[in-house]
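pinging the channel bc i need a second pair of eyes. not urgent but kinda urgent?? the chain im working w is below, pasted from the shared doc
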Amino acid sequence: MTDREARHAELAERFLPDELLERLRERAAVGDRQNRFFHDDLAELRERGYLTLFAPEELGGAGLTLHEVSRLQRRLAAAAPATALGVNMHLLCTGVVHAMIARGDRSLEYVLEEAAAGEIFAFGISEPSNDWVLQGSKTIAEPQPDGGYLLTGVKVFTSLSPVWTRLIVHGLEQSDAEQPTLVFGFIERGTDGVTSSDRWDVLGMRASESRATILERARMRPERVARRIPAGRHPDLLTFAITSHFQLLVASVYAGIAERALELGAAALRARTSARHGTTLAEVAEPRIRLADAHMEFMAVPAQIDAYARDVDELIDHGAGWPLRLVSARLNASTAARRTVETALACSGGAGFDNAHELSRLLRDATASLFHPPSADAARPMYAAALLDD
């Protein structure tokens, strides 16, 4: 075992020991069935310091790297995907600040201080029909005399909606119609004009409670304004940090689902027998090949995530090539999760089709990967342009 792998094993035992994962897996089935938020999971993870993984040791955190957190998120997702996806959004916010500090920008250091003090951060960026994502917004940002803003709009898929205390949002200020400005910053729970939808009855990732957040002239205080960036394609450290951590941490969740599906597929083939062959299906060529193909496809996924996470940690500058790498990692992990779970389901036989079976739940959870931005359709022009446009 290399020093790096020994370090990952040590962190796994410290933050996500096997006995905790078994409890999380048992509760994941209940949360999915009852469409109930993972309050118990969150309480145990907080007790172990999981929400302060990115916070520095001097604040009482673990001071981990993106690569280390990514590995932990894969492990967590293999047990409780909805919990991992929900916690991702807090880790995304704290990881963004960790990455900015590593690059010399300490302007958002208070995020880590507040996370260490127990605040829970969430991600309120996605909007209906906004395929610009970070480069545009349908939320209106009204500038105020004190330097703050009043925000009006809808943010969809706000994971951690029952418990967040700080929400990163963005909106479009159009005081200058020719040069609109994107405003990024944080709003606090309890702010007037902030409500959560009462609708959450979805196919998968049910325990994440990723309800829509409605903003009606919700106040962003001036000291909570993080960035003012021209709308459109304008590189900025904040948006790079958001993109890198969102894409790689979400990819880690789906890699964890795929990894668990392979385990369940292999266990199913060992347990099932073939009357025709007089042996277990683990010794029959066709299902072995089916599972082998899924395993081969999966192997590239963690390698890609690991490589790009280390590049972020080591301050490697891929310039304009970063989006190609980051989005590719997340799309590949998403595709592998869906295909691998489908393969494992076929290996399980009719038993896996029962709603109570773990693979049935994993199949539905993996389907949520279709809805993280950007979609494959939205990303393809970027890859084509990298090869075909001058």
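so The two ends are 46 Å apart (CA to CA). and The mean pLDDT is 97. — does that match what u expected or am i reading it wrong
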